[in-house]
Amino acid sequence: MLIFCPSLKAQFTLGAQLRTRTELRDGQAAPLPKGASPAFFTSQRTRLSAGFSGYRFKLGATLQDVRVWGQDASTINKTTTQDNNSLLLHEAWAEIMLLDTTIKSRTLNLKIGRQELIYDDSRLLGNLEWLQQGRRHDALLLKYESGSYSLHVGAAFNQNRENSAGTVYNPTPPGNYAANTNGSAMYKSMEYFYAGRKLGYGHMSFLFLSDQFSRFHPDSTGGKIWDKGVHTRLTTGLYYANTFDKLTLTAAGYYQFGKNANAQQLSAALLSGAFQYQLCHSFSAGLGADYTTGGLASDGTSHAFDPLYGTPHKFWGYMDYFYVASSFGNRGLQDYYLKTRYKPGKKFQLTADLHQFYSASSIPDNLSSKFGTEADLVASYPLTKVISFEAGYSHFWSTASLSSAGVKNVANAQSNNNWAYVMINIRPEMVFKN
């Protein structure tokens, strides 16, 4: 039974999204073998979201379906092919205002349930918006905001079902989505502390994140049997971004230690720095560099940095050769890039980026450390506040090092690889106020 009290202010929001993306993949994510045919398909994300806010609380929920045109997953036996489940609950959360709403100088909120975690530039924690499936976490989040300062504490603890005893967790069950960057094991638990401060035209922040992965031992076939206990990985570092007149500077540094999901001792780092300069009202350009360590030491220590639960598509080239689904041998990455943006009016925008990629560790057989060069071109145009169009083309000139057995492991690989897409995004929203 629903009871509405007219004396209390409340707001109901109803939203939807239909996003189609038609892609031509001729060596996207990894070089294609010579003679292989390009792929061509259209994927579609459909979302229905609802939100309700009242006195000292908010509720939000998003139902999502992702499929490829012609897949017709409704005819697939989901008992034996669970990986084809495309309908899921993307978000379902409640946020409670723990302080009285009359206190305007500070807030203390508790957010619980399935939610997106987005921080800073989404490098380590983001909603992976580019991927049609997106990313979400089942978590608890305590948020304190006061003036220019933010303090957040979050935690998650995952289980496969309502167990009668024990907390052993299988991070790769059939049909489960991969929540971390490289599609490997899902964390069993996670805790983090985030502290941020707003600057004049930017902000700086500190992050300390701990995630735990189930211990395991191999079975007779080389598979994994999940055991009690966990391996703990720790990541900590700083982020900075600010704009000074026409110049925007960004910098970040993070260090990882502990043990990774493969039970390897870990010592790894990420360093990033970039600037963007507004040359005129309609055009800006900038240079940047990213460095992530990689490789395996003689004592078994891994130096491969994992960018956690971020949005790699935003940083390391739009063809997703690095830190996405297709691995590159945990080699680490050097990325030196030029980024430009042209926006002649309020709507149309054109971006052109150029990346030069190198390995951050040695490659077997004394091969060159150069992975290749990528050029990305993207045009976007919002027809209305609800409807937008986007199209892109990318080209990757790859080397023999990239396709070698110790990296992408593609035999007889083509050296010129292409990817193109057209995306239509329709996102209406209605707000009802009492």
Kindly give the count of domains: 1
Mean pLDDT: 91
Dominant shape: globular
Query: Class by helix and strand content?
Result: mainly beta
Please give the CATH class: Mainly Beta
State which percent range the strand residues make up: over 45%
Our measurement of the CA-to-CA distance between the termini, rounded to an integer number of angstroms, reads 18 Å
Number of helices: 1
What is the oligomer described by this structure? single chain
Number of E-state strands: 19
CATH 2nd-level architecture: Beta Barrel
- If you consult CATH, what is the topology? Porin
The share of residues in helices is under 10%
Largest sheet: 18 strands, antiparallel, barrel
Radius of gyration: 23 Å
Spans where pLDDT lies below 50 across 5 or more residues: 1-7
Q: What does it look like?
A:
The protein has 434 residues and is an all-beta fold. The protein has one domain: Porin (Beta Barrel). It has 1 helix and 19 strands. The two termini are 18 Å apart. 27% of the residues are buried. The N terminus is likely disordered.
Explain briefly what this protein structure is.
This protein is mostly beta strands. The protein has one helix spanning 400-403; strands at residues 11-26, 39-54, 57-68, 87-97, 106-115, 137-146, 149-157, 189-199, 202-218, 224-244, 247-259, 265-280, 283-292, 333-342, 349-359, 370-382, 387-398, 416-426, 429-433. It has an 18-stranded antiparallel β-barrel.
